[in-house]
Amino acid sequence: MLIDLHAHSTASDGTDTPAELMLAAAAAGLDVVAITDHDNTMGWAPALAARPAGLTVIRGAEFSTTAHADGHRVSVHLLGYLFDPEHRAIVDEQARLRQERLHRGMAIVERMVAAGVPITADQVMEIAAGAPVGRPHIGRALVDAGVVESVDQAFAMHLSGRGPYYVPKADTDLPTAIGMIVAAGGVSVIAHPRGRGERRALTADYLSELADLGLGGLEVDHPDHDRPERAELRAIADRLGLLRTGSSDYHGTNKVLRLGQERTEPEMLERIIAASNGITAPVGPGG
């Protein structure tokens, strides 16, 4: 069984519509795919409406959170699966985060325009097309303007946290986000915990504390992780009794990633389903 539990659509910063994501998942031979757009669940309904026969869909989201290390804020992405999308705390926090993304995105664009970069806020908003504004949307505007050749190059040259145009945003405290997902009947898994600077905050000791607070698992097999990092995370997860997932983090053409290039074991998916309270169940053959 081929299971990929981390994929994005145009409801956040992917380039496939939710319907196209479902077709791409089926074409890639997936049996199970999770739609996990940033800070919203807007893609769920159109994804399910377009679900091909034989494909199971896990509804989820990727929450923007913050941990602390050595006096610095560290961005940590937290995947939530099978939670109640109408849970009040999640509804309110996702709305706040979408506004935070919009304000941050426009502030970045303002800095670029002031520096003479040939893009506009209207271009970025048109690219986002109603999705929460993210840096990849700005990256696509830079590609369209001929400033860079790819979104990856846009991040390397202009959009990274160390770049001249970077503006931080006020994300959810990580323990708070874990608590929200648990209260909404879902299961939380930390996305790419060794991929993007999270190592400073996500020590083995801190992960143990988060497990005590209800953290469900770690995304062990991810394109950003090398073999030693995967071995380390697998050992931590097993020691703490956490789930281990594997996912592509697919974004369509925004990133050079293939659906299904990393996989989750069927046993781990069964544990995710069993740990949720069933309010939001998988939708698939016979479901």
From TrEMBL:
Cleaved signal peptide residues: none
Matches recorded under Pfam families: PHP (PF02811)
InterPro entries from the UniProt entry: PHP_dom, PHP_domain, Pol/His_phosphatase_N, Pol/histidinol_Pase-like
Gene Ontology molecular function: 5'-3' DNA exonuclease activity; 5'-3' RNA exonuclease activity
Name of the protein in question: PHP domain protein
Origin: domain of life: Bacteria
SMART domains: POLIIIAc
UniProt cross-references to CDD domains, sorted A to Z: PHP_HisPPase_AMP
Domain Polymerase/histidinol phosphatase N-terminal: 3-67
